[in-house]
What does this fold into?
Amino acid sequence: MGEAEEKLEPSGPLLPEVQHRSISPLRSRDFLLFWTAGAVDGLGTCASSLFLPLILLGAGHSAGLAGLVASVALVSGLAVSPVAGVFADRWPRKPMMYAAALVAACAMGSVFVTVALGHVVLVHVLVAAAVEQAASATYGAAASGTIRRLVPPEGYTRAIGYLQARDQAVQIVGPTLGGVLYQLSRWVPLLADAVSFLLVAVLSKAIRTDLTPDREGPAAPFTRELAEGLRFVCAEPFLRFVVVWTAGINALLGALYFHAVFASHAQGAGPAAIGLILTLAGVGGLLGALAAPWLVRRVRAARIVTGASWVMVPTAAGLAFASRTWTYGLLLSGVSLIVPSVVVVLQTRAVLATPDRLLARMGTVLGTAGQGVAVLAPVAAGVLVAEYGGRAVALGCAGAFAGLALYATSRARLVVGEAL
It folds into this structure.
């Protein structure tokens, strides 16, 4: 990418105007392969991860140990992600992607074999789950630097919108698919996950575009390159804003989702009703992701970010007074409808603001910050709902959303690129 592409112009609607004339990224063979690989990966992961705890419980292990496996796996992914980002900015990214997918396939394939044979060993499942998450984090680090190579700058907004829509659709379809497969036999979701990783490896290898990152001279020591990615994010006012906004939104949305689950359960809602809440939220997210490129073409970026931040305040407050399952679902669906447009704006400008040689490290820094905070959401929501009640938690989230909206409003000039 040239030097001119590494900076944002001060005009807010510049990208939307250019985007209006762009060809759909899905017409690009390599982007379609990349998009499909992510969809297959997500479906396989949803099919197995939600039901792996049930497999452990069925083997006689306690709920605490089953939860420990899930937590250790998640932490391993978070720990590996920044390290993988350094190597993804050093090495050819395509080989990293399909090698990571093959490692994940082997890990989940080994669990499938043991479950199918009726010999579930906790330590083996724990190690395999951690390896699978670490491999997935490595794949994600390499993949975070691909958009710039697969799509021209005028197509970034639509491409990121398609990726958001894909992920939202996977969240809706994946759990249902996993449930159907689990009904066939408890090992079938694990087999599906292993096969999905093999397909991801094949699709990634089929990408023809050279995804090798740009380098300026020989590689520096590992710790220096790791620190360089962190310093770059900290030095850019816009990227600092993205870190704070994303971490805050992830934490608050996670708390609201689990608040809705806990509060509705306390009111006597059954599993089907609680599933309806999550389904409605997923549908809202999918519709928001599909509409995001259209909205970004017509509304200034700063207005999208600040407007969405303020709209979430009354939505969160409404959850404090919800008394029916469908009300929880509609309110969460409204929040999920809003977020994708902001994500498209922020991710597009983050890609434009970052040199190619730092893309993977920038992506892993932002992702680790957001996911690391989100890990605490279920625990925090459960403790707060039990201690103070659902209404107090929802109102507290509404107050936190208001603080985040004030922060977004005060930093609105960064969104249109004046500080970049």
